[in-house]
């Protein structure tokens, strides 16, 4: 067995929650990562591609270990990256197990296929998770466009698909550091996801909230705005919705085996609760953005965006600004401005989650 230790006793003891050590082992066909973590710590394991890698995240934990170590087994190298452990792979892997107990988080990887690893990495969702966060509500972030669809392009060549992905990743870090929800993203890299697929991504996971991020183009428009589902409230809202929508295939609800007239009542109730939840989220977004960034007049608008049409998941679409406006484009290119947006949206989501908890959350997609 080859073993490499990351984090020696010589390092100072942390004051508070922290990862205090890590060992990477190759034991035959098994590559094993062992982390010393506090009991009950929240953790998640994510697979990602281009290049193939495994990311181990422990939100809210400090890392009191050295920043890198040589590889072992199918892990070419390991290093700390933005508050998480990154394992660069020399070949595709499959997850054999991931368990936490007795102050240790043990992740075991075994040889896998390229196709199997691609399935693991699809959607940026956790392939294993546990700890105190496992039962928390799920927030799905949807960076618009991607792949062959660049979205809007600003005068300086800024592509919407890149700006919104960077903003979503920043917002994800804000939410995960807060420890009050789980987060999944409809895409974590530059790939195309059909609109109906984005909706189903949230519905399959019974998400509590869906937040789609955009930076569109509209002559004369400037500032952030938020949209919920409804009849187009003005010409701009209708035009934006028509541009974004490629299909309208939201699918049906999973309803219990009751007479058709009862199913109709249940569906009506679910849709009504969903719209109430969406409107509340829009109010939080406007309130939190207003002090920090320019806003479009009549900031909360309604339109028939496809990605807002899940009947059972409250959803908002946030236009962070318009790439057709040079001032918005320049701002959205700056990481510090995107971080400001992410912080404000994080406050809005946390406020919505708090209100949801105190007032009772909308019905989920399964009523049986």
Helices and strands in order, then pairings?
Blueprint: E1 2-6, E2 18-19, E3 21-27, E4 30-36, E5 43-48, E6 53-57, E7 62-63, E8 68-72, E9 75-81, E10 84-89, E11 93-101, E12 104-111, H1 114-121, E13 126-130, E14 138-143, H2 160-178, E15 182-185, H3 195-204, E16 209-214, E17 224-229, H4 235-244, H5 260-289, E18 295-303, E19 315-319, H6 326-332, H7 335-359
Parallel strand pairs: 2-7, 14-15, 14-16, 16-19, 17-18
Antiparallel strand pairs: 1-3, 3-4, 4-12, 5-6, 5-13, 6-10, 8-9, 9-10, 11-12, 17-19
Provide structural commentary.
The chain has about 375 residues and is of the alpha/beta class. The protein is about 30% helix and about 30% strand. The strands form 4 sheets. A 6-stranded antiparallel β-sheet has the order 8-9-10-6-5-13. Helix 2 packs across helix 7 and helix 5 packs across helix 7.
The rough form would be described as globular
Radius of gyration: 22 Å
| Helix percent band | 25-40%
Q: CA-to-CA gap between the ends? A: 50 Å
> Structural class, please?
alpha/beta
Structure keywords:
globular; single chain; 368 residues; alpha/beta; 7 helices
What's the short story on this structure?
With 368 residues, the protein is α/β, with parallel strands linked by helices. The chain contains 7 helices and 19 strands.
């Amino acid at each position: 067995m080859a073993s490499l230790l990351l984090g020696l006793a010589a390092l100072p003891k942390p004051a508070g929650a922290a990862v205090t050590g890590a060992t990477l082992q190759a034991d035959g066909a098994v590559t094993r990562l062992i982390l010393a973590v506090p009991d009950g710590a929240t953790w998640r394991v994510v697979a990602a591609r281009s290049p193939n890698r495994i990311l181990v995240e422990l939100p809210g934990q400090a890392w009191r270990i050295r920043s890198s170590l040589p590889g072992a087994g199918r892990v070419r190298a390991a290093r700390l990256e933005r508050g998480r452990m990154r394992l660069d792979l020399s070949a595709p892997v499959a997850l054999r197990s991931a368990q936490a107990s007795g102050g240790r988080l043990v992740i075991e990887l075994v040889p896998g296929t390229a196709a199997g690893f691609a399935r693991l990495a699809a959607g940026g969702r956790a392939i294993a998770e546990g700890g105190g966060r496992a039962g928390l509500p799920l927030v799905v972030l949807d960076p618009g466009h991607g792949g062959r669809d660049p979205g809007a392009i600003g005068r300086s060549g800024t592509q919407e698909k890149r700006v919104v992905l960077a903003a979503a990743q920043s917002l994800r870090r804000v939410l995960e550091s807060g420890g009050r929800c789980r987060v999944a993203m409809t895409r974590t890299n530059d790939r195309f996801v059909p609109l109906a697929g984005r909706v189903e991504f949230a519905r399959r996971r019974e998400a509590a909230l869906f937040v789609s991020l955009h930076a569109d183009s509209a002559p004369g428009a400037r500032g952030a705005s938020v949209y919920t589902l409804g009849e187009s409230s003005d010409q701009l809202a209708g035009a934006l919705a028509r541009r974004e929508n490629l299909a309208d295939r939201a699918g049906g609800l999973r309803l219990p085996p009751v007479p058709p007239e009862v199913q109709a009542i249940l569906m009506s109730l679910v849709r009504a609760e969903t719209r109430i939840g969406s409107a509340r989220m829009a109010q939080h977004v406007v309130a939190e953005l207003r002090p920090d960034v320019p806003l479009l007049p009549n900031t909360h608008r309604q339109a028939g965006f496809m990605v807002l049409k899940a009947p059972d998941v409250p959803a908002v679409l946030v236009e962070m600004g318009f790439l057709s406006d040079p001032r918005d484009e320049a701002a959205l290119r700056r990481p510090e401005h995107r971080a400001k947006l992410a912080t404000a949206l994080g406050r809005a989501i946390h406020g919505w989650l708090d209100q949801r908890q105190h007032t009772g959350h909308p019905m989920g997609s399964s009523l049986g």
